[in-house]
Amino acid sequence: MKKNVGTIDKAIRILVAVVVVILYFTNVISGTLGIVLLALSAIFVVTSLLSFCPIWQVIGISTRKKE
Q1: Residue 40 lies in a domain
Q2: Domain limits for position 12
Q3: Which of 23, 44, 45, 46 has its CA 20 to 30 A from that of 9?
Q4: Which residues contact 24 (CB under 8 A, 6 or more apart)?
Q5: What's the pTM value of the predicted model, to 2 decimals?
Q6: How far is C-alpha 11 from the geometric centre of its chain's CA atoms?
Q7: Is residue 67 predicted with pLDDT exceeding 90?
């Protein structure tokens, strides 16, 4: 599993996840949409922690700087 998520990409994913969680728990978003967005947020957090996004790999994109 080759890392393909860069620092800025990680920060954006975490920020989006935090915003979705805040919106869900303040009842701005709810129901099925809220649950789907929470699941997506969890995926964003996991891919940020692992520095690997399977979708980026399939598409052939890497936001990580070359070493």
Answers
A1: yes
A2: 7-59
A3: 23
A4: 30, 34, 37, 38
A5: 0.86
A6: 9
A7: no
